[in-house]
Design a protein that fits this description.
elongated; 0% strand; 79% helix; 131 residues; mainly alpha
Length: 131
């Protein structure tokens, strides 16, 4: 149940972030998810910690897709096609993966404690393997 609740909060937060950006509030997440504010705060102290968890999970998912699709013996064009299909599919299923790419491609800093590390890891493990 805990894992399901966290997934519900994260997905709802991603949807609201896409609508409002950093203007989103924890109350917005609670309302849209059909949860009490206390429930959301039970899992996350504030929106920054929630966004940090979203981005960490998004990075891990994107890295997994990158490694699985680009580290094969297929031709480069086939690998790129598989990568694009899988990565774009993940953006639909998990909007927080889209948020990661959107913000880092547009160089929109995300107010997290580890932004520079995230940007460096993005360049090294997600962008460079594709290029």
């Amino acid at each position: 149940m805990r894992r399901q609740r966290i997934y519900q909060i994260r997905n709802t937060a991603a949807e609201i972030y896409l609508e409002k950006g950093m203007n989103m509030e924890m109350g917005d997440i609670a309302r849209k998810a059909g949860l009490g504010r206390g429930t959301v705060y039970h899992y996350y102290n504030n929106k920054i910690s929630l966004i940090e968890d979203l981005l960490i999970e998004a990075f891990e998912e994107a890295q997994k897709i990158t490694m699985e699709t680009l580290n094969t013996n297929e031709s480069p064009l086939i690998r790129l096609e598989q990568y694009a299909k899988c990565q774009l599919g993940s953006w639909i299923k998990q909007p927080f993966v889209f948020i990661l790419f959107k913000n880092l491609f547009q160089s929109e800093p995300i107010p997290t404690q580890n932004y520079d590390e995230l940007l460096n890891n993005f360049q090294t493990h997600l962008y460079s393997p594709v290029t």
